[in-house]
């Protein structure tokens, strides 16, 4: 291998590091008897009727290329799903692209809209994938720390940031219900932010992959208020426990999806045909599949929130997704990576360091409660024991 060739690769790659989340998950996997509350993946299996649809697809030899935008049947099912669920109206023929998960959707959108020097506004803490994709496009992430406002972007902070960065702002990214905090935006929040954003000629990228997992009020999309500016990202991964099937989608006005379709087509050609047939079944006949999972997640949410508060952690009660973002108590290791490493080795519970999610995340930990109640009960028992032991150590030092 000519090592000199590495230096000739895309220079932005030198600015990127492998995913902190995956690295920490892998690093703790070898600890004996570890309980992992790390990865954001439903612990439910894909519903049976969806699996049966995939089997029928295979038996029917649906093993050829699908149209790049997705099968017409799946796009129609997605259009109907969004209309009934969120009052969003997208023409299945021209305004929907089926992608290889929401991950490809994020890449396709950012690659398509960004030019060198553009700026992308990101309320933090935030799912970190948006950051490297922005950097690879030679654009600049602009972080807006929401930790002082209950992890919700305030209209005041948005206006201040837009005024500061001016015409260089190309887009803003929203992800709600939010990974990692579990916070969501209520209708009044969305409406207030939309009033500001409609005055600016920028893209609104709205990642709504957790839209079916809200506890209480129904999810409200930014596209309901600003359809001409908003690019909606969603998929079947969380709503139907289909992470491994890799079915996401992008919805936007036709003029925008036409351009997005170029990068999408040149990147993957099309997503797996049998997986699209399964997703069609999910959105046509499993419209409420997420409801049963949501009931269980809510029980787990209530339990983990209660137990973490008992153990001395401050946390905002999640309103969606399946994460709890907890503040490390005073007097403990405050650097989140060091705290999580210590917790993993001494209590045998793995959670994700909050510092992985950008400004406002340091000093916190993210717990995924997409795990069985038995696992969560044991994990909370171990965390409580870890805290009690540390408190006892502090007391001994003081005496």
TrEMBL record:
The keyword Cell division does not apply. Residues 33-383 form the Aminotransferase class I/classII large domain. Belongs to the class-I pyridoxal-phosphate-dependent aminotransferase family. GO terms for biological process: amino acid metabolic process. Keywords: Aminotransferase, Pyridoxal phosphate, Transferase. Its cofactor is pyridoxal 5'-phosphate. This is Aminotransferase. One of its GO terms (molecular function) is transaminase activity. It comes from Sporolactobacillus laevolacticus DSM 442. It holds the Pfam family Aminotran_1_2. Its EC number is 2.6.1.-. It comes from the Bacteria. The keyword DNA-binding does not apply.
């Amino acid at each position: 291998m000519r090592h000199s060739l590495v230096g000739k690769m895309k220079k932005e790659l030198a600015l990127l590091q492998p995913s902190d989340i995956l690295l920490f998950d892998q690093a703790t996997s070898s600890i004996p008897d570890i309980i992992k509350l790390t990865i954001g993946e439903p612990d439910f299996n894909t519903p049976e009727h969806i699996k049966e649809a995939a089997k029928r697809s295979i038996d029917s030899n649906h093993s050829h290329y699908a149209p790049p935008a997705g099968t017409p049947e799946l796009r129609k099912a997605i259009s109907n799903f969004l209309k009934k669920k969120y009052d969003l109206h997208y023409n299945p023929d021209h305004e929907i692209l089926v992608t290889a998960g929401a991950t490809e959707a994020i890449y396709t959108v950012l690659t398509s809209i960004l030019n060198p020097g553009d700026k992308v506004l990101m309320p933090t803490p935030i799912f970190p994938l948006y950051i490297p994709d922005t950097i690879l496009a030679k654009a600049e992430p602009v972080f807006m720390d929401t930790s002082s406002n209950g992890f919700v972007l305030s209209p005041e902070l948005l206006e201040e940031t837009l005024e500061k960065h001016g015409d260089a702002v190309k887009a803003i990214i929203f992800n709600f219900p939010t990974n990692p905090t579990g916070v969501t935006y209520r209708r009044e929040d969305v409406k207030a932010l939309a009033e500001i954003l409609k005055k600016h000629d920028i893209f609104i990228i709205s990642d709504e992959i957790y839209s079916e997992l809200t506890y209480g009020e129904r999810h409200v999309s930014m596209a309901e208020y600003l359809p001409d500016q908003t690019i909606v990202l969603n998929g079947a991964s969380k709503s139907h426990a289909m992470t491994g099937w890799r079915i996401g989608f992008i919805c936007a006005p036709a003029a925008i999806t036409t351009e997005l379709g170029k990068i999408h087509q040149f990147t993957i050609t099309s997503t797996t045909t049998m997986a699209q047939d399964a997703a069609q079944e999910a959105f046509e006949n499993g419209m409420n599949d997420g409801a049963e999972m949501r009931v269980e997640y809510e029980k787990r949410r209530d339990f983990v929130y209660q137990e973490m508060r008992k153990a001395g952690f401050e946390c905002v009660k999640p309103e969606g997704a399946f994460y709890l973002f907890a503040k490390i108590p005073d007097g403990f290791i405050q650097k989140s990576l060091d705290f999580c490493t210590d917790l993993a080795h001494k209590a045998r519970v793995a959670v994700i360091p909050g510092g992985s999610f950008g400004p406002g995340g340091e000093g916190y930990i993210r717990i995924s409660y997409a795990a069985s109640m038995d696992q969560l009960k044991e994990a909370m028992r171990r965390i409580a024991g870890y805290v009690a032991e540390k408190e006892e150590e502090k007391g001994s030092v003081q005496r």
